[in-house]
Amino acid sequence: MDIVEYQDVKFNGTIEHQSIYKGEPNPELDNAWDALVFGTKLTAISAEAVEKLGKSVQPSLVKFMDEDGGGYMTTMEVTHQLHCLNLLRKSTYYDYYKSMADPLLRSSPDQYRLHLNHCIDILRQQLMCTADAGLITYQWVKGYERPYPDFSTWHKCRAIDKLWEWNEEHAVHVPWSRIKRVEQGMDLEEAP
C-alpha cells in the first residue's frame, strides 16, 4: 500500500513499564486489545490490486455484491497478527479466558492447539521477514551480577494511526449476512 508513513518511536522496554496492553486480565486491558483486534474493517480492492498482491482472480475469491460496491474482500495483515498475539496473551491466562465466552479458547484442545501453533508460526514468519536489526546496549546495574539489557531503543515505525485512518476511509460497511457465495463461485478443495 502506498499509504505507509513512518515515524521515529522510542520503545519503552523497561520491565516495570505500565501499558494498557499488558498485565493481569481486566476489562480495561481486554477492551484495549479488542480495539486493536476488532477495530479494523473489511475493505475492497479491484482485480488489478489482487494481481499486484501476487494472487490470481479466481471464482473462489470472495467478492462483494455489486450493490454493495463490488470489489474483492480484504483485511490488513496487522489485524491477523494482533489477533495471534492476543491469543498468545490469553493463553498465558488460559483458565481466566476459558471461563469467558471466547470461542477460540472454548474449542476442542486439538483445534485450539492447531490455532495456537498457526499463530506462533505466523508471528515467527513476520518477525523474521521484518527482522529488526536494531542494537541493544547493556548497562551495569547495582544488584545485578551480569550486564543488564536496555530494551528502550529507537525504531522507525509505520505510523499505525495512518493505517487505521486508511482502513476507516476505505471500509466496506456490509453485514456478514450479505457476504455470500456467488452463483458461479466455486470453493477451493483445501484452505489456502
Automatic annotation (TrEMBL):
InterPro entries: EF_Hand_1_Ca_BS, UstYa-like. Pathway: Mycotoxin biosynthesis. GO terms for biological process: mycotoxin biosynthetic process. It holds the Pfam family UstYa. Belongs to the ustYa family. This is Tat pathway signal sequence. It comes from Rhodonia placenta.
